[in-house]
């Protein structure tokens, strides 16, 4: 582990990057204890507070964990998929909100990714994932369901579809698409969309998954994409209509 002394930028960030690179490269393995703060400070020729800040950065990324006591210290963490999901969702949400990603681009990406996992999902769906989809369908037809609750159920339904593929890497990759892009699209379209129409699309998808009919599920997702795009364009056109600010 080392840093370029001539490189500009935050020292703690550079130290964190150096340690992260060592973890990714396998030079530091899961459960291995990192050198002490004093040893790291000597190695990188920085102060202990700078090292401490670097370790905080790594802990925030779930790359290390800290333990107290005589046998304590900082250890390389075993990053779990549930922890990774949260980071993927946060990163995707920030990417969309800070880089002016258009509604069309987000919609295209989300549905393309979801359709791509559908053949595996149809082949591997389980009674549990089917039950989740059916439960969310039932929830979406309940009287008095708020817009926020309906949107949350919408996300949960599609997350169950993705998780039906039984592939944690796919679930991780699609976490941002389903749980970051989809809420963005819901936020734009919820005032214009028909709940009945959404439930209809979802019912056909669930039926196709139960019948292991991947082609039907993909076709229905394409129809849902077209419906969502139309809603989004109509809403944004209304917002920027005559006499309204762009």
Structural class: mainly alpha
Helix content, binned percent: 55-70%
Strand content: under 5%
Note poorly predicted spans. none
Question: How many distinct beta strands?
Answer: 2
| Span between termini | 51 Å
Shape: elongated
Can you lay out the helices and strands and say which pair or pack?
Elements: H1 11-24, H2 37-44, H3 48-60, E1 64-67, E2 73-76, H4 81-98, H5 103-124, H6 127-140, H7 147-163, H8 168-189, H9 195-210, H10 214-239
Antiparallel strand pairs: 1-2
Main attributes of the structure:
246 residues, mainly alpha, Arc Repressor Mutant, subunit A, Four Helix Bundle (Hemerythrin (Met), subunit A), two-stranded antiparallel sheet, 10 helices, elongated
What does this structure look like?
The chain is mainly α and 246 residues long. It has two domains: 11-76, Arc Repressor Mutant, subunit A (Orthogonal Bundle), CATH 1.10.10.10; 81-239, Up-down Bundle (Four Helix Bundle (Hemerythrin (Met), subunit A)), CATH 1.20.120. Helix content is 69%, strand content 3%. The protein contains ten helices and two strands, in the order H-H-H-E-E-H-H-H-H-H-H-H. The chain has helices at residues 11-24, 37-44, 48-60, 81-98, 103-124, 127-140, 147-163, 168-189, 195-210, 214-239; strands at residues 64-67, 73-76. The chain has a two-stranded antiparallel sheet with strand order 1-2. Helix 2 (37-44) crosses helix 3 (48-60) and helix 9 packs antiparallel against helix 10. The longest helix has 26 residues, at 214-239. It is elongated, with a radius of gyration of 23 Å. The mean pLDDT is 87.
